[in-house]
Task: inverse folding
């Protein structure tokens, strides 16, 4: 029931925020915070229960209610350690995004918080739906509020970016729908039963060329969301044009749904096809890592730069998943969490700078360290996390992925390791252009962080450092689920 | 004709009696409100009756009409659509500078024609139904022709619809004549008469092709779609709603019945023609809708695309196994019903808006800017309709799209599936454009208040769109019942 509690409190909070938003924007903010708090309480209870029974049972079943019996579709919600970690990330970044919206969003607040909380609820649903039909519903439905967040509260070119984001995702997910239906029909031919349940479909025999086509349908949808080359093109626009809380949600959580899909669906459902396809996927991953890192270096728009670094980091995730061994998969989970936290931090910084300086252009900044020492220091922390400094979460993730990949495809690991040179270049460019050197223009009015902003960034820094020094916090929870996924993905 | 047969005709008789009652009523007392009430109640009763008879044994009433669960279900859908058209017309006609009571007579005649079409299994009754519907629609499309509020497009639309509809009917009749020359009977169930395998005569193939042309006009399948955008834009919004939903449901129901009966070469020829039209409709409809600035015109092109999608289910009826056939027919019926529901929602919004200001139907999308913040209910309904037409989950549109994909994958129609994905992706662009326009900051003042009736209609249609999307099990069961 705790999972339903999380989803319902988020949805309910959204509706309440909409209803109060007309009269009092302040009330809608506090209501959103309250609904996040309630959701976190449910989550804490879920975490305690699940970790307590970790040794005995892999899955915590929440609901299994019949929905559309004609096709054996159920409202099947279940969580394992992997889902648990990602839902936790969703809630933490929910707080960060909410705090960043606090003063940035000042028109149509009620509607904003409705969309905001519905996006969170949709993502929680994606991470816990084990019925493929239900998964698809959450996958699509979380798009609409995100689309509206970009289209209504975004920056100068928001409508274009929102439309591009929506069409990319929706078009690719239609392929996924077709592949999903194909898989279900395949299973129906083999067993004579209709089922969309992940637990049933992982037993389907998907060897053969049909399996490859179906796998590609899923892969493309997840690759778009991840995003990876060559379908990454929506991301720089969407991330740049979204308002700060929107960018945080996009980079921090929505990209992770793509990675989650690859982990949960592509390998376990199509082990043979995925194994055959792995070299190509890893090649694309390496390309993403290097190409996006190079593009990031060339950007002048701060948010665009961060957006490209996201593509580069998600290239690692793609690599790690398609290496498919214990080391690389654990690294992937850590990389997902670490990147979620660090990119959220960087986007929050970009938002704060834009609020103060009214620009995102790096060449309009410079010399900010003297004016805003607290903000500059925290930016340094996030930049270092991005470049993979030991002691912060990202390092653990990237290092384990490289180790894992090296066992499978040494060439891929060697090439991807070049990012260890490229990442410092783009990360330090942010610091150098933005914070060091001489100030451009009159910026004396720029204020340093206030308490709310410190709290928001502090939350991220603490999480990054904590996971950097104590990664077992996550690894102990995800070890068993990752092993069981690996077992499914090995096929036979 | 015995009493049981007569009883099964009650929905048709009820609809027919509406028009007579209205004629008398208008002769004695002209009252817009009363006329509208009588029409609505009549439609509601007839729909309820048709629906409540589901499960009874099929009745062949004279050689002309068959009243089975299929015609009961789709007849009820047609009647509910007509009910919505009457309901939304009230506010629209109330603000028109035109005498308005006759609209309801025409509407009930058109609905009667549509119901006859749904229940016909004979070419004669098919033609009667089709013409009854079309001739009433000529007048309805041009209904506002003498109004000072909108002259130019309306007259054009009326004349265009009349001429092209007449041409298409003559094609249809010629086709029927050729089939008759071959078979010596007007029943659509040819295999009963001539016993199957010898259905390869040239008469039959040419006749079927000509009939297909006639039907394609009504369904606005490319390349017979030319009238659609102009007529959609020029006709009064409630009439466009009827054209977009009821006419399509009725004509397509006949096509389904026809194909269920056909077989052999006859069927293969038809399927080839249908597949070609599907390809063209999906591509042209979506491409041409991209840059439209008038919402009704945009919906016209969008309906061309949707009718193209609908053919995918027919193309899957190729004779290879009963399982595929029943899934395909189930998919076709469900797609039709969900499409009717979401289209009515869109046109209900447009006609409510047009009742306040005619610019909303004749002008550009610019007039809709900022509507979300001034008229949240109307704009919310329109957003829901657009999302449903785009096929988002939790709306009726998704269930329809899911069935299309299911049928296409099941029958391995990869090319059509690919075009379906491509077309839907293109389609997103223009549906999103409408949503984006609604979300822009407001420019003009739209602070009028909606009446209770209008709100109720919108609520009901929204509820139906969401309900079909969230819990489609009852719908699926009814449809399975109907095609069994």
Result:
């Amino acid at each position: 029931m705790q999972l339903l509690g999380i989803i319902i409190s988020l949805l309910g909070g959204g509706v309440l925020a909409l209803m109060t938003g007309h009269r009092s924007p302040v009330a809608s903010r506090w209501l959103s915070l309250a609904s996040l708090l309630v959701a976190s309480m449910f989550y804490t209870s879920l975490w305690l229960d699940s970790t307590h029974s970790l040794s005995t049972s892999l899955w915590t079943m929440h609901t299994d209610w019949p929905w559309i019996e004609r096709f054996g579709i159920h409202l099947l919600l279940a969580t394992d350690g992997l889902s648990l970690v990602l839902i936790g990330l969703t809630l933490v970044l929910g707080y960060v995004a909410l705090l960043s919206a606090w003063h940035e969003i000042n028109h149509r607040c009620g509607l904003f918080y409705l969309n905001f909380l519905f996006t969170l609820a949709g993502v929680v649903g994606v991470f816990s739906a084990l019925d493929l039909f239900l998964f698809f519903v959450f996958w699509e439905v979380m798009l609409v509020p995100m689309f509206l967040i970009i289209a209504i509260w975004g920056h100068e070119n928001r409508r274009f970016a929102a439309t591009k984001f929506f069409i990319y995702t929706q078009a690719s997910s239609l392929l996924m729908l077709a592949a999903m239906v194909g898989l279900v029909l395949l299973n129906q031919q083999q067993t004579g039963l209709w089922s969309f349940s992940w637990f049933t479909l992982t037993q389907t025999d998907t060897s053969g060329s049909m399996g490859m086509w179906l796998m590609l349908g899923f892969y493309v949808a997840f690759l778009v969301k991840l995003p990876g080359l060559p379908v990454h093109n929506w991301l720089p626009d969407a991330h740049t044009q979204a308002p700060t809380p929107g960018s945080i949600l996009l980079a921090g959580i929505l990209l992770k749904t793509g990675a989650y899909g690859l982990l949960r669906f592509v390998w376990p459902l199509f082990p043979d096809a995925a194994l055959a396809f792995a070299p190509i996927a890893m090649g694309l991953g390496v390309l993403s890592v290097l190409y996006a890192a190079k593009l990031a270096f060339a950007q002048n728009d701060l948010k665009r730069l961060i957006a490209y670094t996201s593509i580069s980091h998600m290239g690692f995730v793609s690599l790690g998943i398609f290496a498919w061994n214990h080391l690389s998969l654990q690294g992937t989970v850590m990389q997902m969490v670490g990147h979620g936290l660090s990119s959220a931090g960087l986007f929050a910084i970009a938002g704060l700078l834009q609020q103060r300086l009214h620009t995102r252009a790096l060449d309009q900044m410079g010399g900010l360290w003297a004016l805003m020492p607290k903000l500059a220091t925290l930016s340094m922390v996030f930049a270092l996390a991005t470049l993979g400094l030991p002691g912060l979460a990202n390092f653990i993730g990237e290092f384990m992925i490289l180790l894992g990949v090296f066992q499978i495809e040494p060439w891929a690991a060697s090439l991807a390791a070049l990012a260890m040179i490229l990442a410092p270049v783009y990360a330090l460019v942010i610091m150098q252009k933005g914070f060091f050197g001489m100030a451009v223009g009159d910026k004396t009015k720029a204020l340093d962080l206030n308490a709310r902003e410190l709290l928001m960034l502090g939350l991220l820094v603490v999480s990054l450092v904590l996971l950097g020094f104590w990664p077992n916090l996550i690894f102990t929870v995800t070890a068993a689920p990752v092993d069981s996924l690996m077992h499914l993905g090995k096929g036979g | 004709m015995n009493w049981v047969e007569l009883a099964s005709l009650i929905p048709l008789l009820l609809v027919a009696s509406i028009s007579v009652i209205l004629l008398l009523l208008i002769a004695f007392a002209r009252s817009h409100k009363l006329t509208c009430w009588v029409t609505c109640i009549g439609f509601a009763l007839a729909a309820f009756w048709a629906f409540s008879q589901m499960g009874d044994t099929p009745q062949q009433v004279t050689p002309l009409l068959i009243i089975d669960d299929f015609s009961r279900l789709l007849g009820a859908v047609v009647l509910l659509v007509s009910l919505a058209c009457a309901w939304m017309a009230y506010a629209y006609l109330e603000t028109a500078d035109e005498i308005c009571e006759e609209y309801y007579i025409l509407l009930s005649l058109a609905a009667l024609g549509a119901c006859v079409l749904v229940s016909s299994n004979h070419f004669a009754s098919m033609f009667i139904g089709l013409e009854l519907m079309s001739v009433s629609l000529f007048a309805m499309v041009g209904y506002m022709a003498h109004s000072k509020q909108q002259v130019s497009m309306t007259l054009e639309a009326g004349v265009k619809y009349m001429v092209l509809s007449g041409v298409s009917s003559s094609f249809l009749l010629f086709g029927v004549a050729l089939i008759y020359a071959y078979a010596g009977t007007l029943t659509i169930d040819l295999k009963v008469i001539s016993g199957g395998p010898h259905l390869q005569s040239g008469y039959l193939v040419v006749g079927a092709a000509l009939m297909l042309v006639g039907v394609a006009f009504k369904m606005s399948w490319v390349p017979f779609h030319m009238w659609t955008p102009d007529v959609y834009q020029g006709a009064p919004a409630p009439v466009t709603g009827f054209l977009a939903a009821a006419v399509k449901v009725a004509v397509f129901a006949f096509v389904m019945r026809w194909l269920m009966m056909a077989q052999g070469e006859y069927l293969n020829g038809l399927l080839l023609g249908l597949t070609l039209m599907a390809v063209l409709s999906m591509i042209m409809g979506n491409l041409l809708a991209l840059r439209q600035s008038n919402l009704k015109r945009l919906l016209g092109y969008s309906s061309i695309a949707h009718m193209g999608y609908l053919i995918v289910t027919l193309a899957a009826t190729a004779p290879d196994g009963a399982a595929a056939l029943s899934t395909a027919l189930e998919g076709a019926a469900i797609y039709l019903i969900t499409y009717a529901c979401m289209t009515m929602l869109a046109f209900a919004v447009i006609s409510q808006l047009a009742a306040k200001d005619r610019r909303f139907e004749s002008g550009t999308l610019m007039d809709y800017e900022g509507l979300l913040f001034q008229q949240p209910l109307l704009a919310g309904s329109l957003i829901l309709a657009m999302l449903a037409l785009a096929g988002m989950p939790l709306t009726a549109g998704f269930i329809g799209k899911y069935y299309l994909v299911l049928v296409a994958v099941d029958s391995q129609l990869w090319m059509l599936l690919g075009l379906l994905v491509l077309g839907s992706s293109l389609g997103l662009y223009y549906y999103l454009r409408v949503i984006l326009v609604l979300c822009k900051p407001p420019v003009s003042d739209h602070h009028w208040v909606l009446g209770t009736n209008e709100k109720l209609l919108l609520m009901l249609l929204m509820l139906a769109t969401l309900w079909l999307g969230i819990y489609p099990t009852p719908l699926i069961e009814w449809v399975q019942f109907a095609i069994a």
